Amino acid sequence: MGRGIKAYLLLCSLVIISGLRLLVIANAVLESITSLSEPDDALHILNRTCFPPHFRWGAASSAYQEDVQNLKQLNLDAYRFSISWSRLLPRGKIRGGVNEEGITYYNNLINELLANDIEPYVTLFHWDVPQALEDEYGGFLSTNIVYDFRDYAELCFKRFGDRVKYWITMNEPWSFSGGGYVTGAMAPGRCSAWLKLNCPAGDSGTEPYIVTHNQLLAHAVAVNKYRDKYQKSQKGEIGITLVSKWLEPLTNSSLDIEARERSFDFKLGWFMDPLTIGDYPAVMRSLVGNRLPKFSPKQADMVKGSIDFLGINYYTAQYAANAPYDSSLNLSYDTDSLVTLSNEKDGVPIGAQAGSNWLYMDDLTRPIPIKEALNDTVRIKYYHDHLSNILEAMKAGVKVEGYFAWSLVDNFEWAFGYSSRFGMYYTDYQDGLKIYPKPSTPWFTSFLNKGPMLV
């Protein structure tokens, strides 16, 4: 990716900020759970201390009405949420039957948003493969998933597309491939036995590449279906949300500078190169060899250009250093890039402390004072600094269209469960899920009212 990350940013529209527009993500969980998805079935791999006492799946589905009113009071005009595949298709496939109760829930949510002048941005896949498909053919390890995902996506286009104008096929597919198939920290919890991470099965040197390949194909066929059959009449846009981080070389040596470029290629480039040029980065082809799947000419043509817009999730920055590895030893995606990443150089952390102070962590096995979790002044500085840099990027010519802040309320954060608190509203898990605004809440409202003067 030596031609640079800047080329990617200039090629694609980022969902960040435009004028006084701010977009906030929040969560809602269906009260009626009709079938399992991978995360439901993989709770055993998560740290149980991350969950409140007496935790069980299935928070009240009516909470979306309160969320929408909070969005309105904040003067926010868009809301990003994900649809649960297995909530619409309990068996993962159209022929297995559609859960009309799930359709009704999302219709109600979309209608409630629009009635309050809030634009829905809908994610189709946020790592929750229907367990039925995982059991039948291994989920994203099989090309069968490509066509089942296409059918699920078409169901959403058909039932919601008259009102939804912004579709996101997948959220952070890199995280799904890595967390689910390299380290096993996330569903479906697969990794190589030699890593000794207690995974029941897996191969960290081959499976993440297969899963990413099938995610890209599934994304592309869904986009192709939307463009061919629905986009003209529904007048919407469709894209994908990827994840990246900023990297600096640990030293000024040519080896560390090259390691930085390889790390970009193995994370962002792994997805962006197929989406923009139709193939994986050359350095990945060289280092991974025949473990890296190949696109047929037809597939490459379909994947290339399959985005109307691009979302980028970012969290922090790290240092990259060259890390030679004997390829005759055990293989893993984590060592294939020949890079090690670190947060500190000479004992000094890099950049904003994006993994610590601004992300409030607590032990939910004990009661905590509300005021302790409500103090998020560091989060305000984090958003202020990020929005300032985004403004500078816009001045430099980057086309930026909106900013999604994660999240409206404290919510389930995968391997961290409910122990991390990203929300602008504090959720009291000990008292009926009551929510309370944190200081960042009025700050965002003031930002929207006064705009760039606050940045």
From TrEMBL:
GO terms for molecular function: beta-glucosidase activity. Gene3D superfamilies: Glycosidases (3.20.20.80). InterPro entries: GH, Glyco_hydro_1. The chain crosses the membrane at residues 7-30. One of its GO terms (biological process) is carbohydrate metabolic process. Keywords: Glycosidase, Hydrolase, Membrane, Transmembrane, Transmembrane helix. Belongs to the glycosyl hydrolase 1 family. PANTHER family: GLYCOSYL HYDROLASE, MYROSINASE 3-RELATED. This is Beta-glucosidase. It comes from Rhododendron simsii. The lineage of its organism: Eukaryota, Viridiplantae, Streptophyta, Embryophyta, Tracheophyta.
